[in-house]
Design brief:
The protein has seven helices and 17 strands. By secondary structure, it is α+β, with helices and mostly antiparallel strands. Strands 1, 3, 4, 5, 8, 9, 10 and 11 form an eight-stranded mixed β-sheet that branches. The chain has a six-stranded antiparallel β-barrel with strand order 12-13-14-17-16-15. The protein is globular.
């Protein structure tokens, strides 16, 4: 966790995210384009694997009236600062006051070799209508827990450039009480996570998130559907090309009562999965990671 955030209270983090600061934040993809030192991309599959797009899928806007229904109400924008820039990515609530999102956005390379810069001032707003909306569907704003572990990262080869295996590119963020005076788990249900899943060819999936302005000019929530293709190490390839900006959103199996199977990580046709690699579930795996921090 960053020193700056660790020295701030939850109230100070909430106070930082004024409507003006929220509206001034740029999508993480724009931050990468503007940062000359940023060259890393989410790793989709091991070297040598075919990750070429197999088709263009068409994302659709999630109607406002759906934002108060499950699972859309659990998806939102995670705002943070990194290298002095206000930015955001998609994230989603998975229970126990935790978010699931991509690690590649919350830790980036610094100016020196093997130097890493971590995100600060993390605040989550679920079910946002558009860029001008700063309240979402009135579920509240939730800051990271200050002075604690803050984020837990799964094995991620940004930390080990010599590791050529596919990485998980998964990060969790632990949230404190929000502007509602309650924890997010008291306000919203979790997107439950599947484990021990055997992939069925051509089974249908759905991704939910907030694409960048090249797709969503006004900043609405979008969803995109497709079918499984094949499994590759720690990723599962899926048919179709997902638009930029949806990284961090949930990857849901349609015939599983809207349970999460993984996380959108990159816009090629491979997505990091939380199943079947965490045999006992994601939360116990996180606890094991936290003990090592």
């Amino acid at each position: 966790m960053s020193t700056t955030s660790a020295n701030m209270t939850s109230e100070e983090i909430l106070a930082y995210w004024t409507p003006e600061n929220i509206r001034s934040a740029i999508p993480f993809e724009e931050f990468l384009k503007k940062s000359k030192s940023e060259k890393q991309k989410p790793v989709a599959a091991a070297k040598g694997d075919d990750v070429s797009p197999r088709g263009q899928l068409v994302p659709t806007v999630v109607p406002k009236e759906k934002l108060t229904t499950f699972p859309y109400q659990c998806v939102g924008r995670l705002y943070f600062t990194i290298k002095g820039t206000r930015t955001w990515i998609s994230a989603h609530h998975v229970g126990a006051n935790r978010l699931l999102t991509v690690a590649h956005a919350l830790v980036v390379s610094g100016s020196k070799p093997r130097e890493w810069v971590f995100a600060e001032l993390l605040g989550f707003i679920p079910a946002m209508v558009n860029y001008q909306d700063t309240l979402g569907m009135n579920y509240g704003t939730y800051p990271q827990i200050p002075g604690g572990p803050g984020q837990a990262y799964f094995p991620h080869n940004h930390f080990n450039p010599d590791d050529r295996k596919a990485d998980f590119d998964i990060c969790t963020v632990f949230l404190n009480k929000g502007s509602t005076g309650k924890y997010i788990s008291e306000v919203l249900p979790p997107i439950q996570l599947l484990v021990n899943l055997n992939y069925t060819p051509q089974a249908e999936w759905n991704c939910i998130g907030y694409p960048d302005p090249t797709v969503s000019k006004d900043g609405e929530m979008y969803e995109i559907s497709g079918k499984f293709d094949k499994q590759v190490d720690t990723t599962v390839q899926k048919y179709g090309f997902t638009p930029p900006g949806m990284s961090g959103g949930p990857w849901i199996l349609k015939d599983s009562n809207n349970r999460g199977n993984g996380i959108q990580a990159g816009n090629v046709d491979a997505t990091t999965t939380t199943s079947p690699y965490f045999r006992d579930g994601l939360i116990p795996a996180l606890a094991e990671v936290e003990e090592k921090l």
